[in-house]
Amino acid sequence: MTTYTQKIREISKRLLQEGRVDMVIGFARGSVPMINQPAFATHSADADRFVWDGNCGINLANYVTGRQETIGIVAKGCDARNLAVHIVENKIRRDQLYIIGVPCMGMTDRHKLTAAVAGEIESVDEDESGKTVTVSGDGFSETFNRAEMLQENCMLCMHRNPVLFDEMIADPVPEQTDEDIDRYGAVRRVENMNPEEKWDYFDDLLSDCIRCYACRNACPLCYCPTCFVDESKPQWVGKSIDPADIRIFHFLRAYHCAGRCTDCGACVRSCPMGINVRALTKKLEKDCLEYFGWEAGLTTEQRPPLDTYKPDDPEQFIK
Questions:
Q1: Closest of 114, 84, 117, 115 to residue 99, by C-alpha
Q2: Which of 102, 109, 218, 108 is nearest to 160 (CA)?
Q3: Is there a contact between 316 and 290 (Cβ–Cβ < 8 Å)?
Q4: Please, what is the average pLDDT of the chain?
């Protein structure tokens, strides 16, 4: 994605040279393949570090919370939606942000790529069209259909283009619709299970959790000054890896994100144990859409449905 990279650098340099922003937040090459890292440019020369490809999966909205500076930020669809949530929740002001919008065709899944080859991956290259991805290492080089190697949340994304931006680096890409994908198929499969099957499903889902909190720390919505799992007076949940404590942590964190989660995949991407935490948040996303007609981060003019009260709120979910 050489064109995207060049455009991001040009816009970032212009903003810094003109004094429009105090810094620009984007991506730079990481220290290991398939993981680009957040980068901060405060001088125009710093912008030469910026890159863009399918390894920019980290949600940069994480890095604007509570800042006082004027910030330029590179934002794909889910990042921009999270910025909208931040604005609504008064974590950053809209006039502090200059959003550099990036049309996104999805982020590659490093776990899929790693599993698809026999050796250790040393480099990853995407063709300019974005249709293939080539991974190389000691004694091998293999090319894959990039669409098959995307993160699951990207495969199901219906907001590839930023809904909030000040400048776009390219023309919008085609959006997917409900006719193209079944974004809640996995949720319905769990909904159709009997109680015993559901218990076994979630027991297996969370069985490998080591309570490292990587999912929480990577989540752009988890900016409470003190998380409920860290409270000691009162202590809301145990600190152990007892299955009950693990379930309470994941279920309560998911509910805290209800109506706010943009399905950016940061939780799954960061989990060292490969747990599909999205199984919880995707269900709540589906409920918010069906009960309230609500999708997170599409507006800065309205608060999430579980953050407000209306006398005519639907009550079908109350058992």
A1: 84
A2: 102
A3: no
A4: 93
